[in-house]
Amino acid sequence: MLRPVQRKLGETLRDRVAGSDAGERGPQIWGKPGERWFAPGDPIWRVHEDAAMFPGGVAALLLQSLHPLAMAGVAGHSGYKGDPWGRLQRTSNYIAMTTYATIPDATAVIAHVRAVHERVRGKDDRGRPYRASDPHLLAWIHAAEISSFLAAYKAFGPAPLSETDADIYVAQTAVPARLLGVLDPPTSVVALDAVLAAYRPELELTPAASETVDFLLRTPPLPGLAKPGYWMLAAGGVALLPPWARDLLGASLPLWLGRGLGRVGTATVRWGLAGVQSGRRSAPPTA
Known about the structure:
Number of domains: 1
Largest sheet: 2 strands, antiparallel
Number of strands: 2
């Protein structure tokens, strides 16, 4: 009796995050013959294929918003309010392609994103110039993203991740990051933590960041019935943030409550996606 419900939930989540054609594009990503950077047993596969990416994604967006120049670029060019699902699907496709696809397909996606970045430039509300291709900003976006994904998997993932595997995960994410334009990306958890710490003096809650927080946590573009489930995931995302980031964002949700809601929300998403992901774990052909 629950199978149709599971499949419907999985299809709805997949279509929202990856696009309505995700079912058709999936075999092209995972089934296409060719050499890949990573294999199914690698930590990057384990982290990026799990439902913990949902609260991890919320945490990443919140954390990234705290850099004023990165946030100015998002506010001025991404159209996240007018087309939030399109932006989410583009990000989801980038992560999928650079994690699972053949090397030529992955590098083609990276080249496309680099070309887009070259066109994204301007000034923030204080007149400070920014450009999306700036290696300094790219390094912040990368570090904030992968630290959030890693924290999410550790908190809500289906199995523990050893310290060694966590270091391997950080090192593996550095492969596409270098091609995207990140100079000397971190290759261990210790190095990743050092990068985050180095950016702290630059971070602040600008008006644009406050709007993003409101959009993500208070007025998400969802129908009423979907909001409780989303808010569980968002609460989990907030709980993943470092204490100093929660303070900057003014997030006062009790940590125990956020962790509990995030765990339930992630488990529900994982159950739904399990109904539409058959065969994905198999090793892709290499030739």
